[in-house]
Structures are given as structure tokens and as C-alpha cells.
């Protein structure tokens, strides 16, 4: 018999050390390396990016001279604080960023842009700076600036970390000087955006952006009776989180997004009854974070209600956060296919 739990009943309590220990690549990128990256021979920029990140890793691992050696050491050539990997979806940016993390000596941190902003929300700005200033490397995946507050926040954080000698590396599909365009009046915050751009040497990775093909069609949702049958048949020896979708969505507002990783501890699969379209932006953005953490852990999903391509309103899918929503739908669809594959096996 499956062990049933409810995410909507969980209130994880996380210490600062536990939060920071969660900043590492997900299992999908847990053992990648520069050697395991396969550049497309038709896209020479991919090989160039690999070589650039290998050199960056080497620079991070050079020990700092101490004592008299430091006093008489030759002055290091002026370099920027980090690298910014720019390119479309599916060209291997996260693979390379995780490879950099694996190849670099610690202490070090790897997280998504949203996870860092959530960390600041959980700890405060000053405590986040204090915690990360002793790190050799901070990696920021899926770098986004969705509103003026995040623009100012991240520009200050990157500037202070760079001043403390921390090396930075980021991925995105938007050049750093163009962050925020189409989402808010970026011209009003050009100075802050430029501070961010000045921290990085941009490395472009070309290649086919597979998500330009459009969203995949999700499997048809199951009925609630089918959900119960599948839980009994396919998850007999596993821990399953079973929740009414509306109850879960309401509960997420009471749990800080920085704790969503711990919210899923010990969960082998999630089952959602009566999924419905989310119509509030704040609720939708919280759910995007949950989708990312589920995808990180490759947790299969079973669901009844509306299909996942109807999870967000048409206005949301065409608005300023469309990249986030497209990513979430794509990832949730992959996980529900995984869940239904187990059902069919």
C-alpha cells in the first residue's frame, strides 16, 4: 500500500545552513562535466563556450598567494567577475553551468535566479550577502529580471559579491543589457541593469531553440477514480503526495518559495485532484517555482481536471512572464507523461 501524504499539510522549517546546502545542481545535472557536453559541429560557438568555461574554472581554482608571496606576487590581469552564457533553450547552458560548478573548488553555490531572490526574502539582503561573500563561485541559472524590485535587488547583490571577490556565472536567453525589456519600463532602470551587465563577459551559445516548436500537447487528465486506482496499482511501495489542487494552491501562499525544495522531501510522486486554471498572477508565479522544484527532482505527476496547457490563462501565456509559464507547462507536461508512463507499464 502506498504511503499517502499531503503537501498541503506540510510546513517545512529550514535553517540558514539547510537553505544554503540546497544550492547545488539538480539530479539531472548531478554528474555532468565539460567532457560530457557534446558541441554541435555546425555551431562553433558551442565549442568556444566550453573552452571559455574551462578557463574560467581554472582561474577559480588558482590558490590565492599568502604572506610574502601575496606581497610580491605579480598583479593579476584585470578580468570581469564572471561569465554570462547567452542562448536559446536547449543549447546546453545549464549543462555548462553545472559543469563549471562541478569543476570548481568550494565553497560554491548553484541555484536558479528565483531561488536567489527567494533566499534574500527568507534571510534578508544583508545576511544573504554575508553568507555568500565567503564563496569562491556563485552560479545563477535562468537569470531573469521580471520587475524593478528584482532589478535593484540583484544588481546590488551581484555588485557586493563581486566586490568581495566572488566569481559569478549566469545563464539566460536574454543579453544582460536587455534584461527586463518587455516586462516593465526598463529604461527607468537602465543604470541598475548596466551594473549587472558590467559584471559579466558575455559568451554566446548558438543552436536550435527546441522550444520554438511550441508547447507539447499534454496527456489527457485522468478521472478521480482512475487516480485512486493508479495509486494502488503503481505506487504500492512509494510515498505519494495526494492533494486537492485548490487546497494545495492556497497552501503554497503560506510556505515561502525558498522552502519548496524541502516541501518535497521524501516524495516519490504527486497526485492532484481537480486541477483548474490559475487566474491570479501571484499564485501562478508561486506555482512556477513548485513546478521547477518538481522537475529538479524528476517527480512524476498524476492529475485530474484541466490539462496542463490550460493551467495558466491565455493572457498570462502572452504576457510579460510568458517564458516562465511556457517553461512550467513544458516541465509539468514531461512529469505527467512520466506519471502516466508508469500507469501504462
TrEMBL record:
Domain of life per record? Bacteria
Q: Keywords assigned by UniProt?
A: ATP-binding, Cell cycle, Cell division, Nucleotide-binding
Recorded GO molecular functions are: ATP binding; ATP hydrolysis activity
Q: Name one GO cellular component term.
A: cytoplasm
Question: What InterPro entries does its record include?
Answer: ATPase_AFG1-like, P-loop_NTPase
Q: Which GO terms describe its biological process?
A: cell division
Has UniProt tagged this entry with the keyword Nucleotide-binding?
A: yes
Query: Does this UniProt record's set of keywords contain Cell division?
Result: yes
Which PANTHER family did the record assign?
AFG1-LIKE ATPASE (PTHR12169:SF6), ATPASE N2B (PTHR12169)
Q: Which NCBIfam families match?
A: ZapE
Q: What is this protein called?
A: Cell division protein ZapE
Q: Which organism is it from?
A: Arthrobacter terrae
Amino acid at each position: 500500500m502506498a504511503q499517502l501524504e499531503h503537501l498541503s499539510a506540510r510546513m517545512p522549517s529550514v535553517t540558514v545552513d539547510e537553505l544554503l546546502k540546497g544550492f547545488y545542481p539538480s539530479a539531472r545535472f548531478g554528474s555532468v562535466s565539460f567532457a560530457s557536453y557534446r558541441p554541435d559541429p555546425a555551431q562553433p560557438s558551442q565549442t568556444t563556450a566550453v573552452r571559455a568555461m574551462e578557463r574560467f574554472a581554472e582561474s577559480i581554482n588558482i590558490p590565492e598567494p599568502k604572506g610574502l608571496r601575496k606581497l610580491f606576487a605579480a598583479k593579476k590581469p584585470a578580468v570581469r567577475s564572471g561569465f554570462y552564457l547567452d542562448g536559446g533553450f536547449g543549447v546546453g547552458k545549464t549543462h555548462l553551468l553545472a559543469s563549471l560548478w562541478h569543476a570548481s573548488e568550494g565553497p560554491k553555490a548553484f541555484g536558479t535566479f528565483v531561488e536567489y531572490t527567494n533566499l534574500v526574502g527568507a534571510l534578508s539582503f544583508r545576511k544573504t550577502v554575508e553568507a555568500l561573500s565567503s564563496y569562491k563561485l556563485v552560479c545563477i541559472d535562468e537569470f531573469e529580471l521580471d520587475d524593478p524590485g528584482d532589478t535593484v535587488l540583484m544588481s546590488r547583490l551581484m555588485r557586493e559579491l563581486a566586490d568581495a571577490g566572488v566569481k559569478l556565472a549566469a545563464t539566460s536567453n536574454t543579453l544582460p543589457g536587455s534584461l527586463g525589456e518587455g516586462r516593465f519600463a526598463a529604461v527607468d532602470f537602465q543604470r541598475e541593469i548596466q551594473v549587472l551587465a558590467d559584471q559579466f563577459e558575455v559568451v554566446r551559445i548558438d543552436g536550435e531553440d527546441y522550444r520554438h516548436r511550441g508547447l507539447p500537447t499534454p496527456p489527457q487528465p485522468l478521472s478521480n477514480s482512475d487516480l485512486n486506482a493508479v495509486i494502488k496499482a503503481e505506487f504500492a511501495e512509494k510515498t505519494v503526495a495526494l492533494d486537492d489542487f485548490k487546497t494545495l494552491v492556497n497552501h503554497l501562499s503560506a510556505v515561502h518559495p525558498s522552502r519548496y525544495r524541502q516541501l518535497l522531501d521524501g516524495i516519490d510522486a504527486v497526485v492532484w485532484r481537480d486541477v483548474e486554471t490559475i487566474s491570479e498572477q501571484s499564485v501562478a508565479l508561486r506555482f512556477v517555482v513548485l513546478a521547477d522544484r518538481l522537475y529538479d527532482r524528476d517527480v512524476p505527476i498524476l492529475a485530474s481536471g484541466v490539462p496542463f496547457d490550460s493551467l495558466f490563462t491565455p493572457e498570462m501565456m502572452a504576457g510579460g512572464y510568458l517564458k516562465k509559464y511556457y517553461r512550467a507547462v513544458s516541465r509539468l507536461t514531461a512529469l505527467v507523461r512520466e506519471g502516466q508512463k508508469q500507469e501504462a507499464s
